[in-house]
């Protein structure tokens, strides 16, 4: 049984219903739905969503993720336009664009990321955009394609400590992901970069701190830390639940390491309070983000 601090209310409300309706009308996916995010009710009710582009079937077999895995459909070339229309209808001022991993595509889908960003910019001039990208197999050209579309924040999650990569992200590579974050700052030095970790998969405290240090060394400004919650019977098991006090301690450790903002709490996910994270670092301070 999950501890009390991980219990959430069932999704409901007028905004929740409207956002769901717009997404279905435009035939769009969100990671909120596909990854069974526990914050979906709160986020939809606040009129925020993380759009999932390039379909809803991933070519990788990560053991922590609820997204469907297998052979994806062909790329929907009209998806960027429909997302821009949805953003306009939803009257969003901040949007996160992410995707399934598409190792079947020559550029990993980077060109669709760029087209989506451009489409949103053309429709809503003052909307901030965060791109939460896969590793593109380490392809610098694909990364540059996304960066040249000028997202406000470039996000790539490390997800777990290096010792557990072969279990948690069997096709990914820890060093490759760190290098991608480092390369993003080298290609576009002014961009804000971000990454995240899940805890509760069997890592030690020291491993978490060391991985946080590696992410900071790669140049990241923002770090998110949240509890891993198994999405199903065939997913990786939860080794333990971190307490809110432990998340607060991790937040303090992250700020000591030099992150501009650390979002740390049991229900924190990469896109959780994403607009607030962006606003905080541009105001020059961080808040206590363990409050749920």
Question: What is the element layout, followed by pairings?
Answer:
Elements: H1 14-25, E1 29-30, H2 31-34, H3 40-45, E2 50-53, E3 57-58, E4 68-69, H4 79-90, E5 94-99, H5 110-123, E6 128-132, H6 140-147, E7 153-155, H7 165-168, H8 174-187, E8 192-199, H9 205-217, E9 222-227, H10 244-257, E10 261-264, H11 274-283
Parallel strand pairs: 2-5, 3-4, 5-6, 6-7, 7-8, 8-9, 9-10
Antiparallel strand pairs: 1-2
Helix pairs in contact: 4-5, 5-6, 6-8, 9-10
Task: Provide structural commentary.
The protein has 292 residues and is an alpha/beta fold. It has a single domain, classed as TIM Barrel. Helix content is 38%, strand content 14%. The protein has eleven helices and ten strands. The protein has an eight-stranded mixed β-sheet, with helices on both faces. α6 (140-147) links the parallel β6 (128-132) and β7 (153-155). α4 (79-90) packs parallel to α5, α5 runs parallel beside α6 and α9 packs parallel to α10 (244-257). It is globular.
């Amino acid at each position: 049984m999950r501890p009390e601090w991980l219990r959430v209310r069932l999704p409901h409300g007028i905004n929740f219903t409207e956002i769901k309706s717009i997404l279905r009308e435009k035939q769009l996916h969100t990671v909120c739905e596909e990854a069974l995010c526990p914050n979906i009710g709160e986020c939809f009710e606040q009129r925020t969503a993380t759009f999932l582009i390039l379909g809803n079937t991933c070519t990788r077999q990560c053991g922590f993720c609820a997204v469907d895995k297998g052979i994806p459909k062909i790329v929907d070339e009209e998806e960027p336009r429909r997302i821009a229309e949805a953003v306009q209808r939803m009257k969003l001022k901040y949007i996160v664009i992410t995707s399934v991993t598409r190792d079947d595509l020559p550029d990993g889908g980077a060109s669709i990321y760029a087209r989506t960003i451009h489409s949103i910019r053309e429709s809503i001039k003052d909307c901030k955009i965060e791109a939460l990208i896969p590793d593109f197999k380490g392809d610098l050209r694909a990364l540059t394609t996304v960066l040249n579309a000028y997202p406000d924040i470039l996000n790539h999650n490390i997800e777990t400590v290096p010792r557990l990569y072969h279990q948690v992200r069997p096709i990914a590579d820890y060093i490759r992901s760190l290098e991608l974050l480092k390369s993003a700052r080298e290609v576009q030095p002014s961009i804000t970069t971000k990454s995240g970790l899940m805890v509760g998969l069997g890592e030690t405290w020291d491993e978490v701190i060391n991985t946080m240090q590696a992410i900071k060394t790669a140049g990241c400004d923002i770090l998110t830390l949240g509890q891993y919650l198994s999405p199903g019977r065939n997913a990786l098991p939860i080794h333990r639940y971190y307490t809110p006090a432990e998340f607060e301690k991790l937040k303090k450790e992250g700020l000591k390491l030099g992150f501009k903002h650390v979002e740390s709490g049991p229900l924190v996910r990469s896109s959780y309070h994403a607009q607030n994270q962006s606003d905080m670092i541009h105001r020059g301070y961080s808040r206590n983000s363990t409050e749920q």
